[in-house]
Design goal:
The complex is a heterodimer of chains A (about 525) and B (about 120). Chain A has about 525 residues and is of the alpha+beta class. In chain A, about 35% of the residues lie in helices and about 25% in strands. Chain A folds into 3 domains: about 130 residues, 2-Layer Sandwich (Beta-Lactamase); about 220 residues, 4-Layer Sandwich (Phosphatase 2c, domain 1), CATH 3.60.40; about 140 residues, Heat Shock Protein 90 (2-Layer Sandwich), CATH 3.30.565. In chain A, the strands form 5 sheets. Chain A has a 5-stranded antiparallel β-sheet with strand order 7-16-15-12-13. Chain A has a 5-stranded antiparallel β-sheet with strand order 8-9-10-11-14. Chain A is elongated and about 115 Å long. Classes of the chains: A alpha+beta (about 525), B alpha/beta (about 120). The interface between A and B is medium-sized, with 26 and 27 residues.
Chain lengths: ~525, ~120
């Protein structure tokens, strides 16, 4: 029955109106008249705070729009529904069908009815509120999912492979999905554009602005190349499309992988850190965030990444993370960590571990975290050799397959005979497995480094792990008879296989690292050195 | 990357174990189970069919060595067929081919009476 009364609770002013429906009792029974909205500040509400029991509308002398509306809707009698001292609705009655006045018995009956109905109505209201809250939560979750999908759509699916360079990236959205993005762009003359940006605001609007910025940069960068000009153009295009109160911070850099020359411009984004032999410097260039004002100029600066140099680009999700005492992780701490000499995935792991220590357990990530690192290899590929690829894999079982595929792809242009390629693949797989299991002892956070280089008539694949202290294994021919007789473990084939598969196997170690170098001679193969 | 699986079937002259996917550490359980199933069908030769195998690493070699050791104890002949040139080479380098018959295809593996006697070195 309570469903027939379209009654809502007054929520301390948040809910604008109390609605009440009038039963058109005199006319057609069971037909509900249109609801009457009662403003929370209507004198009628105040009146019922101090009154119990049915009230004759005719006898009410209140300057109340609600009373006028109720009268107009045909109500003659109103009965307040009060639960725990709070007015939660009204029973509104038209004239009696007998056209007689409401009797004292009628009034008593109505008062009793209201007394019993009020708690039930209140329960129904609470259930409805809860259902509405659940629906709202689901709507927000759905929106977050959409934002996440949009964002992921525009993040790079793979990292660029630059001979002599190692690129690593990390991206982790906050639960609320901020607007971080990063990108790598192929530019004329083998140059590469590197973008790291952050849209203010969160959720779907931020994701859409991020998508727009991404598309604009992709369209303009190859044409203009100059980082200052690219940001200036992107700014002018974004100003016209940007929703109010939103803007984009963005660092855009152009790398010439051959010379190590890096040109960059910055639209209000965090300053990248460049680590060289002399320590860490911030790469500064001035410029306003994108999308605020038209016609902005973006300063363009230049730096050189010498062999061994590391570049770290980052969004503020890391530096501006808060610890349990609300203190900030901070840029000085970040700069200090960047100076420690780690690079690539190791640097990213170091930063994330320090962040975890800083925030403590149970931390909810406040903002997206984006990290992009770029290292110019220190020329470990010997003088006169050309690096074909350099990458790392985490020390997890099965990752040797990734290494095999990447090495095979990198040596594709050498046109190795099929059999030699197959042998190299097996050797690489075994060397990486050894590095994962014996060198890094299956600790996923320790990387296995792979450097593929070609020099003269020699192809070299160098596999490095972090187990410099382990004794060097000597390859020897396994004793198959002893194994078949059960006198020896059936295992122990790895090093023997590697040695059998390549022309030469070189091992080296220092206190920290252990390296295996697989050499394949390229006689009879076209010389690419 | 195909997960390893093995299926046992009987044919004239031998029980064939069809191997699929990669033979690495994950193949340990399924390979042993397939061998046990094949062995339960009689004392005859077992042919390992590598036609659908795309990767064998040193751990996989060790699994095959373990299997051969078991077969030797049971005086059972093991044959292999369907190996790519590369893995055939590896079977030769590791001398596995000295202890199991290596055949180009299943028919010659199952039809080879020599399979019954290859419990020692042949090469």
């Amino acid at each position: 029955m309570s469903r027939r009364w379209n009654i809502r609770r007054t929520l301390g002013g948040r809910q604008p109106a109390l609605a009440a429906a009038v039963e058109a009792a005199a006319g057609e029974p069971g037909v509900e008249a249109s609801p009457v909205e009662i403003a929370p500040n209507d004198p009628l509400v105040a009146y019922f705070q101090g009154t119990t029991g049915p009230v004759d509308l005719d006898s009410l002398d209140l300057d109340s729009p609600a009373v006028a509306d109720l009268r107009a809707a045909g109500a003659r009698m109103v009965v307040p529904l009060v639960s725990q001292g709070e007015l939660i609705g009204l029973l509104n009655l038209g004239p009696r069908r007998s056209e007689q006045e409401y009797s004292a018995d009628d009034r008593k009956l109505l008062a009793d009815l209201a007394g019993h109905a009020a708690p039930a109505v209140r329960v129904a209201q609470l259930v409805r509120e809860q259902q509405a809250e659940i629906r709202e939560r689901e709507r927000i979750e759905g929106e977050l999912e959409v934002a996440r999908l949009i964002q992921q759509q525009f993040l790079p699916h793979e990292l660029p492979e630059l001979p002599g360079w190692h690129v690593a990236a990390y991206y982790k959205p906050a639960r609320q999905v901020g607007g971080d993005f990063y990108d790598f762009l192929d530019l004329p003359d083998g140059q590469i554009g590197i973008v790291v940006g952050d849209v203010t605001d969160k959720g779907v609007p931020a994701a859409l602005v991020m998508a727009t910025t991404h598309s604009i940069l992709r369209a303009e960068a190859p044409r203009l190349v100059s980082p200052g000009e690219v940001l200036g153009r992107a700014n002018d295009l974004l100003v016209t499309e940007m929703p109010a109160h939103m803007f984009v911070t963005c660092l855009y850099a152009v790398l010439d992988p051959t010379s190590g020359r890096l040109r960059y411009a910055n639209a209000g984004h965090n300053l990248p850190y460049l680590r060289t032999e002399d320590g860490v410097v911030e790469l500064r260039a001035t410029g306003m965030p994108l999308g605020l004002l038209p016609g902005m100029d973006y300063e363009e600066k230049e730096a050189t990444l010498a062999p061994g140099a590391d570049l770290l680009l980052h969004s503020d999700g890391l530096a501006e993370a808060h610890g349990p005492e609300r203190q900030m992780f901070g840029f000085p701490r970040l700069a200090k960590l960047a100076a420690e000499g780690k690079s690539g995935q190791e640097l990213i792991d170091l930063l994330l571990n320090e962040l975890a220590k800083f925030t403590g357990p149970g931390w909810e990530q406040e903002d997206d975290i984006t990290l992009v690192t770029l290292r110019r290899s220190s020329g470990e590929a010997a003088a006169g050799s050309t690096a074909l690829t350099e990458f790392e894999v985490a020390s997890e079982p099965g990752n040797e397959r990734i290494a095999i595929e990447r090495v095979a792809a990198a040596v594709g242009d050498l046109d190795l005979p099929a059999a030699r390629l197959e042998r190299l693949k097996t050797a690489v797989g075994e060397a990486v497995m050894n590095a994962i299991e014996h060198g890094n002892r299956n600790r996923p956070e320790l990387p296995v480094g792979v450097l593929v280089a070609v020099s003269g008539a020699e192809l070299s694949v160098r596999v490095t792990d972090q187990g410099g202290d382990r004794p060097a294994l000597q390859p020897e021919r396994p004793d198959l008879e002893a194994k078949l007789a059960g006198e020896q473990s059936p295992r122990g084939w790895g090093l023997f296989l590697i040695e059998s598969m390549v022309d030469e196997l070189r091992t080296s170690a220092d206190e920290r690292q252990h390296a295996v170098e697989l050499i394949v001679r390229l006689e009879g193969v076209e010389d690419h050195g | 990357m195909a997960e390893f699986r093995a299926a046992v079937r009987q044919r004239a002259g031998a029980v064939v174990v069809d191997l699929h996917g990669q033979i690495d550490v994950a193949a340990d359980g399924p390979l042993a189970a397939a061998y046990a199933e094949a062995a339960s069908q009689g004392p005859g030769a077992i042919v390992l069919n590598f036609e659908e195998v795309d990767y064998i690493n040193s751990t996989g070699i060790a699994l095959i060595v373990g299997l051969l050791a078991r077969a030797r104890k049971e005086r059972r002949a093991i044959g292999a067929c369907g190996l790519t040139d590369h893995y055939r080479e590896i079977f030769e380098i590791t001398r596995l081919s000295d202890f199991m018959g290596i055949y180009a295809d299943e028919d010659s593996a199952a039809g080879a009476p020599a399979a019954a006697g290859n419990t020692g070195r042949q090469g």
